Amino acid sequence: MASPLLFIATVILAAGISTINGCSTTEKASLLAFKAALSEPYLGIFKTWSSDNCCLNWYGVSCDATTGRVTDINLRGESEDLIFEKAGRSGYMTGKISPEICKLDHLTTLVVADWKAISGEISPCITSLSNLRILDLTGNRISGEIPADIGKLQRLTVLNLADNTISGKIPASIVNLESLKHLDLSNNRLIGQLPNDIGKLAMVSRFLLSRNQLTGSIPSSVASMSRLADLDLSGNHLSGSVPSGLGQMPVLSILNLDDNSLSGQIPSSLLSNQGMGILNLSRNGFEGTIPDVFCSKSYFMALDLSYNNLKGQVPASLSSAKYIGHLDLSHNHLCGTIPMGSPFDHLEASSFSNNDCLCGNPLKTC
Length: 366
Hints:
Blueprint: H1 4-21, H2 25-36, E1 38-39, E2 61-63, E3 70-76, H3 82-87, E4 93-96, E5 109-113, E6 116-119, E7 134-136, E8 158-160, E9 167-169, E10 182-184, E11 189-192, E12 206-208, E13 213-214, E14 230-232, E15 239-240, E16 254-256, E17 261-265, H4 268-272, E18 278-280, E19 285-287, E20 299-304, E21 311-312, E22 323-328, E23 333-337, E24 357-359
Parallel strand pairs: 3-5, 4-6, 5-7, 7-8, 8-10, 9-11, 10-12, 11-13, 12-14, 14-16, 15-17, 16-18, 17-19, 18-20, 20-22, 21-23, 23-24
Antiparallel strand pairs: 1-4, 2-3
């Protein structure tokens, strides 16, 4: 007769194997409800969602190897995966993201991106997924507002909602996402102002909010985001002056503020910052002269100051720059002789056109 201890051990082992080998019926039901709310007619990725074990060979679904809990949903409509290569096309999906997804409370990654036609709103229950680290819904037709309690997702490192039709204001709670490293809300219909305390997002390295309808000024607190490398606020309705502190940020190398209603003088710190590689301030209302602060360590892949109200001369120190890949000073009120030097050798007349009285190579002789 088998010992009671051996029997108990066998039961425990069997239970463990059952857990490891398959997801729970509850989580499977949530996934099937998520699937039922979507339609993907060309690739057949949901045809793999048919076996009893949703942790095994369900396309885009991953589970924890120990607990069997669903941890990742990774569905991208633009992919180099074999299923896309065989179909010879990118993905297309309609429908909505079911709130049933919120019952997967161990979810760390939710990617439903670049399917072009998924609509509906982001369910507020998404903020209950306390383990979520990546939320990427880019490239769809999602509407409505960003959930007001988005700041509850304390472990979130990536928030990408770009290329949708999301409206409303940026929730004040977004500044509480203390683990956030990548924020992309570009190409939506967001209105209102940036939160004044947006600088609390101390871990963010990419902050992309271009092509919205944001108003107000750029908060000075942005300058305290010490890990920020890429800031894009272009294509909005921002006004006021540019905080000089932006030019003193230690790793900021890409700054796009073009196509706004910014005014005042260009902070000299933006042009003297030796780490700045791409600076686009075009199509604003900047006035005054271009700060003459370039040096032998200045290295700009792109410097665009076109379509402003800048006066005076082209800074002589520009000729000492190590490299200027693309320079556009057109459509201003500049005068005088264009400096000579290697940064100017490859530039065309269009870089200096439509000013008041510029002359010299590559324009007409003075």
